[in-house]
Design goal:
Length: about 180
């Protein structure tokens, strides 16, 4: 291949890369972060800060929804909106388990749901025989979005799973694939 052809190819690739970077920068996605309160809420706030650095709009219901509204009613209505792209639920408490079960049953939200669970409760990697693990398996079979996490070993922590998936989703949306 001649040097001229190489330079021409490099210019095409650079133009494509620059265009893609600009599209990704201009594309916005909205994600919702559900999970436990207390320590879980502090963790979600840190994740939100990192997502916002990436240009992702992150909603935490405890911070962003009116306190006077019934959370179960407000969440269902807002999550069903087309503008909401992804709903992450880190199942760490009975409340977040209830949210997962509620949204798994709704066709308007189930496909947006990204479920994070400790490795030991994941239907493929753990050995739990609980009702909740069985529901994870159903969600995994139909929607394919149940992610095992661990703070150590070969599994990513929840924060890294959320960041990695959100970044890719945003790029795919920028390319018009979503």
């Amino acid at each position: 291949m001649s040097e001229e052809k190489i330079r021409k190819a490099q210019k095409i690739i650079k133009t494509f890369r620059d265009t893609l970077e600009e599209k990704v920068k201009d594309t916005s996605i909205i994600v919702v972060l559900l999970g436990a309160s207390g320590k879980g809420l502090r963790k979600r706030r840190k994740i939100r800060a990192r997502l916002e650095e990436e240009g992702v709009i992150a909603i935490i219901p405890e911070d962003d929804f009116p306190a006077k509204e019934a959370p179960s009613v407000a969440e269902e209505a807002i999550f069903a909106e087309e503008d909401v792209d992804l709903v992450y639920v880190d199942v760490e408490s009975w409340g977040s388990a209830t949210e997962f079960a509620q949204f798994h049953e709704k066709k308007t939200t189930a496909h947006k749901l990204r479920v994070l669970t400790r490795r030991e409760y994941h239907p493929l990697y753990g050995d739990s025989q609980s009702y909740l693990t069985d529901l994870y398996l159903s969600h995994l079979a139909v929607y394919g979005h149940v992610y095992a996490y661990s703070e150590e070993g070969c599994f990513l922590p929840p924060e890294e799973i959320i960041l990695k998936l959100s970044r890719r989703y945003k790029k795919l949306k920028a390319l018009g694939k979503i």
